[in-house]
Amino acid sequence: MIQIGIFTTYDPVPDHVLEKARLVALKLVEKKCVVITGGNGGVMKVIAEEVHRRGGIIVGILSYELEKASVDSYLHNPYNTVEIRTGLTYSARSALVARSSDAAIVIGGGVGTLTEVCMAYNMGVPIVVLEGTGMVADKLRKMFPTGYLDHRENVKLYFTADPIEAVEIAYQFAVKRCKKASLF
Q1: Are 19 and 108 in contact (CB under 8 A)?
Q2: Sheet holding 3-7, edge to edge
Q3: Burial class of residue 17 (count of CB atoms within 10 Å of its CB; 0-12, 13-18, 19+)
Q4: How far, in Å, CA of 155 to CA of 146, rounded?
Q5: Which of 13, 74, 99, 144 is the most buried (most CB within 10 A)?
Q6: How confident is the model at residue 29 (pLDDT cuts 50, 70, 90)?
Q7: Does the pLDDT at position 135 exceed 70?
Q8: CATH ID of 3-182, from 3.40.50.12280, 3.40.50.450, 3.30.70.120, 3.40.50.300
Q9: Distance between CA 179 and CA 184 in Å, rounded?
């Protein structure tokens, strides 16, 4: 199965960002993708709820801090189909989120999202940035106008403001990446 990572935030975001996130989740379920997140609350919880509601599979890769979060915490996410308790810090856990993704979609995000983008880039994981979702997602094009994070040009960042197009691009790159991997 194709696994698409969502690099995003647990911080509050405007309603229009949540609507884009729900549409991304819906389209990923329609494509029968496994959705990978950091398992937190916030946008990750919204994505997880939509995937869960639609009968899809959502994998939350939890940091040590999240493992201890009470059900009353805004970080708690009851919608994960599978929870992987890593025992790792947020930053260390991000490596597993990136590595588990055949492609990734960036929605909003802070420094944790930027960490995941850098890790995925280093690993050659294709990255689609959903512009118009604020925070890091809306800064990446300015930060990396060529679409590459450095001179190695591991993978190019792709930018779109359309959630449906973001899913389609990520899915196509993931399929290509999986086919390439199966040749070895």
Answers
A1: no
A2: 82-85, 57-62, 34-37, 3-7, 103-107, 127-130, 157-160
A3: buried
A4: 11
A5: 13
A6: very high
A7: yes
A8: 3.40.50.450
A9: 10
Quote the CA–CA distance of 157 and 104 in Å, as a whole number. Answer: 10
- CA distance to 54, 72, 77, 126, per residue, from 69 (Å): 26, 8, 9, 31
- What is the model's pTM? 0.96
57-71 pLDDT, tens digit per residue, is 999 999 998 888 888
pLDDT band at 93 (very low <50, low <70, confident <90, very high): very high
180 pLDDT higher than 90: no
The per-residue pLDDT for range 40-91, each reduced to its tens digit, is: 999 999 999 999 999 999 999 999 988 888 889 989 999 999 999 999 999 9
Q: Where are the domains of the chain?
A: 3-182
Tokens read off for 63: 């940091």
Instruction: Please identify which residue in the block is written with the tokens 């001179």.
Output: 151
Q: Rounded to an integer, what distance in angstroms lies between the CA atom of residue 20 and that of residue 91?
A: 25
